[in-house]
Amino acid sequence: MFTARELSSPVAAIREEHAPDAVVVDCDRDFETLAPAQAEDLGLLVDSLEPATYPAAWLPEDAPELLARYASSDFTVGMPGDGSITWTHQTDPPTVIVKPRVEGSPEPFLDFLLAEALVEVGLEVPEHFLGFFEEEYRNLEQATALDPAGTYQIAAALYDGWTGLHTRDVFAAWDEDGTHPELADAWHDAGTRLEDRVSGLPGAVARGETDFADATELACAAIKHALELPAPFDALDTDAYRDHGPDYAVTWAEKTFDALED
Description:
By secondary structure, this protein is of the alpha+beta class. It is built from eleven helices and six strands. The strands form two sheets. It has a four-stranded mixed β-sheet with strand order 1-2-6-4, with helices on one face. Strands 3-5 form a two-stranded antiparallel sheet.
């Protein structure tokens, strides 16, 4: 089910710099969450497996079933919202998994996605928002007053934005010091493609063309590209969010959703 992936020179250099022990594999089928039996096939490529578990008290009673399974002792790899490439610290060494859906993507963009995953692995940030929010996830649910799927989407977006505040310094350095020009160009290009959509978010939400959870997802995805964000998302592009993480995210959600109701 998994085969070792040959890396381009730029991506191999990023692995050497940020996550030299990481294993990068192709998966032969698309997935959001791998069944435990399939995930355990990773054991053939790594030294050991150590499933992550989280306290049930962190979850609201109506949490999505997949999130409850992720928090349990089941070996769960990949979750909705992970995108075309996911990674896990539940293997030793950590593993980056490339899904078949990347087929047809421009090679420079794919290299950027791989490099981004390796940078995240090296930063040792949580691999999922539950490890970021911890017990604050319940408070986030209360702040948003959304259904379980909506809360999940907002949480995943906010975590993506917080991670982007850490990774974009690395991406910007590729450009500033000229060490990885191909990856820097791909980073800029991906940001340019988002720019018009992000600047138009307030109008799209006001016209009902985009719901607020989708808007949050797009805005938070833009943070790693250092794009200028419209209000209220610009409050997430701050050192305060980078430093205070989940507490700040919950406060932002409380203020934002209170304003939406007024």
